[in-house]
Amino acid sequence: MKAEAREAQQELESKLKEVVSLLTESRNRVKELEAFSESKSERWSKNQHIYQIFTDFQLGALRELKFASQSIRQDIMRTQKSYSEEFSDLGSRIMALDDAAKNYYSLLAENRRMHNELQELKGNIRVYCRIRPFLPGQKGKQTIIEYVGENGELIVLNPTKQGKEGRRSFKFNKVYGPTATQAEVFVDTQQLIQSVLDGYNVCIFAYGQTGSGKTYTMTGPDNATEEEWGVNYRALNDLFRISQTRKTTFRYEISVQMVEIYNEQVRDLLSTDGQPKKYPSLLVFLYLHTLGILSTTQPNGLTVPDACVHPVNSTSDVLKLMDIGLKNRAQSSTALNQRSSRSHSIVSIHARGIDLKSSSSLRGSLHLVDLAGSERVDRSEVTGDRLKEAQHINKSLSALGDVIFALAQKNSHVPYRNSKLTQVLQSSLGGQAKTLMFVQLNPDSDSFSESISTLKFAERVSGVELGAAKSSKDGRDVRELMEQVTSLKDTIAKKDEEIEKLQLVKDKGGGGNGEKRGTNSLRYGGNGFENAASSDHDDYSEETEGSHESSPVHDQAKLAEKSEKAKSASKVPRPLGKSARESPKASTALRKSTSGTNLSAAKSSRRWQ
Ligand SMILES: Nc1ncnc2c1ncn2[C@@H]1O[C@H](COP(=O)(O)OP(=O)(O)OP(=O)(O)O)[C@@H](O)[C@H]1O
């Protein structure tokens, strides 16, 4: 029992020991757990602290963000408000600008209208006379120019007559003396250039005997400096300059053609194949004959559509083309001028303007014409081909005079078809077109008769437009006289044809003296100013005395003069200058030539040497 008890005790003791060890172990574990949980709790509290800091920081940042977003929102609202204010201000400004633009357009249109009305008031046919200076090597030559007035008066002296009898007065829109510069000459032409961009056709041509300065005025001398540029270059410069100033309202397309008329044949001076294109005369005749009618309705406004049309964007583009054209121009020499141009050269600038607002378009053209020399056949000592050239030149110049005269008289029939020159220029002569003629004079007394015939031609062109004939164009007497003129001209044209046929027959039969016959034909062929010149050389006033031989244009001039007299009889006479009061002959001449302008200023005349 004891043993059992001991055994039990030992067992209990060992179990106790086990329990104690378990307890110790548990305690250790508890301690370990406590230490672990303590470190954990420490870490947690650390982390918590960090989180706290982070959260505080984030909250602070959020608060700042909130604040910033609020201030941004306020800024945006403020900006929005100022923008909307500015937009509405801008809107009202744009509306005001739109109104102003509308006014600007109408003002521009009004401006253009007024400009063109002013040009029309100045006359659609203008004549400017330019006297070239004596050239180096012409020292000691006697001048025929006695007086050049500010307002277009000109007095010339007949070197073979003394005193009043040797004086003759003319009146043009403007007269430029020998010292006038190219720039001065262009000033009065400039106003016409704008009209081209306003849809008008403008024709500027130079007329005068060989060597009188036609090419100088139109183009300038060879290798001209900018100062020496002629009307052509200056006009083109202006055309491009004005088109630039209008670029907000108009887009312009400008193109160039250049042709010459040589012996009644139209030749393209800008043909791209390098050779001037020569149209067979029959073809040209048929072509232009039809074109004469079509030219007013053709949509592209081209009168010679077969000639090359070169688009250009600047003056230099045109200069290059003109150089090519000038090189191609037919030139040969006469006894008067080695560099004499025997053809009419026509530079045609076509401008199409597109209104950027309305998309409507307008077309205008500018014809710059350097006419061939108008010298008399006998004086330039030409024969054969040169004689033929001269005959063609004189015939076409005469036709040009007839057209301008008919236009100035407002005749229902304008004889455009009498020459290639007038056919090509048809759209730029008459109607709304504006024509400016430079009458070129050589001041040398040796050229007196040519100068007088040139001046008479010019007087015929300008006198009727500006003088009394225009205002009484509907008078019965004028109409009757003009009908007589037309029938006379028809008769003469028929006779001219007959003479030419006879000449041809004679020529074929080897009848020899072509020069003489040519001269006769020329005289009879209607070149009024040439005819006038041959008698004018002896006496200015033969027209008033009826001593002139029969010639179509002379008859025409006489008839026109009669009508002028008839009209002036019913008018209050205008004051006349001293010379006019003193001599009945001079009085008639002065009344005719000055269209009633008082030339008393001529008393204080100056003379060029
Ligand atoms: N205003 C001027 N100032 C200086 N020189 C001039 C003037 N006008 C003409 N000349 C000179 O006179 C000469 C003849 O002029 P130009 O060749 O222009 O005559 P043209 O009438 O055209 O002759 P053509 O009918 O033969 O062609 C040229 O040497 C030219 O430079």
Automatic annotation (TrEMBL):
<protein>
    <recommendedName>
        <fullName>Kinesin-like protein</fullName>
    </recommendedName>
</protein>
<keyword id="KW-0505">Motor protein</keyword>
<dbReference type="InterPro" id="IPR036961">
    <property type="entry name" value="Kinesin_motor_dom_sf"/>
</dbReference>
<comment type="similarity">
    <text>Belongs to the TRAFAC class myosin-kinesin ATPase superfamily. Kinesin family. KIN-14 subfamily.</text>
</comment>
<feature type="domain" description="Kinesin motor">
    <location>
        <begin position="124"/>
        <end position="464"/>
    </location>
</feature>
<dbReference type="InterPro" id="IPR027417">
    <property type="entry name" value="P-loop_NTPase"/>
</dbReference>
<feature type="compositionally biased region" description="Polar residues">
    <location>
        <begin position="590"/>
        <end position="603"/>
    </location>
</feature>
<keyword id="KW-0175">Coiled coil</keyword>
<dbReference type="InterPro" id="IPR001752">
    <property type="entry name" value="Kinesin_motor_dom"/>
</dbReference>
<keyword id="KW-0067">ATP-binding</keyword>
<dbReference type="InterPro" id="IPR019821">
    <property type="entry name" value="Kinesin_motor_CS"/>
</dbReference>
<keyword id="KW-0547">Nucleotide-binding</keyword>
<feature type="compositionally biased region" description="Basic and acidic residues">
    <location>
        <begin position="545"/>
        <end position="567"/>
    </location>
</feature>
<feature type="coiled-coil region">
    <location>
        <begin position="478"/>
        <end position="505"/>
    </location>
</feature>
<feature type="compositionally biased region" description="Basic and acidic residues">
    <location>
        <begin position="506"/>
        <end position="518"/>
    </location>
</feature>
<dbReference type="InterPro" id="IPR027640">
    <property type="entry name" value="Kinesin-like_fam"/>
</dbReference>
<dbReference type="GO" id="GO:0005874">
    <property type="term" value="C:microtubule"/>
</dbReference>
<dbReference type="GO" id="GO:0005524">
    <property type="term" value="F:ATP binding"/>
</dbReference>
<feature type="region of interest" description="Disordered">
    <location>
        <begin position="506"/>
        <end position="609"/>
    </location>
</feature>
<feature type="binding site">
    <location>
        <begin position="208"/>
        <end position="215"/>
    </location>
    <ligand>
        <name>ATP</name>
    </ligand>
</feature>
<dbReference type="GO" id="GO:0003774">
    <property type="term" value="F:cytoskeletal motor activity"/>
</dbReference>
<keyword id="KW-0493">Microtubule</keyword>
<dbReference type="Pfam" id="PF00225">
    <property type="entry name" value="Kinesin"/>
</dbReference>
